[in-house]
Amino acid sequence: MGWRESAACRGEDPELFFPIGDGGPAERQTARARAVCLGCPVMPQCRDWAVRNGETEGVWGGTTAAERRLIRRRFVGRLPDG
Ligand code: SF4
């Protein structure tokens, strides 16, 4: 996972990317985490890694766990190697 060297979240509190629950505070935390991801040069690699590895928690590559489940269902076997 060499892409992690370039991650925009390296200096961030890791807990930012793992909101608990699904109410307003968690949604605001998710939005803050996504904002970091949107400025990240390795967002596609991070997202694809999380999808491929079935990460069930947290924001990875700007996606939530629910979004990654959807991606897996639609694109399983069609992601590029990485
Ligand atoms: S896309 Fe988001 S979670 Fe992934 S490395 Fe970049 S900042 Fe971190």
Automatic annotation (TrEMBL):
PTM remark: The Fe-S cluster can be nitrosylated by nitric oxide (NO).
InterPro entries linked to this entry: 4FE4S_WBL, Whib
UniProt entry keywords in alphabetical sequence: 4Fe-4S, Cytoplasm, Disulfide bond, DNA-binding, Iron, Iron-sulfur, Metal-binding, Transcription, Transcription regulation
Chain sites annotated for binding [4Fe-4S] cluster: C9, C37, C40, C46
Keyword Signal: no
Descriptive protein name: Transcriptional regulator WhiB
Cofactor: [4Fe-4S] cluster
Entry annotated with the keyword Transcription regulation: yes
Localization in the cell: Cytoplasm
Main location, first listed in the record: cytoplasm
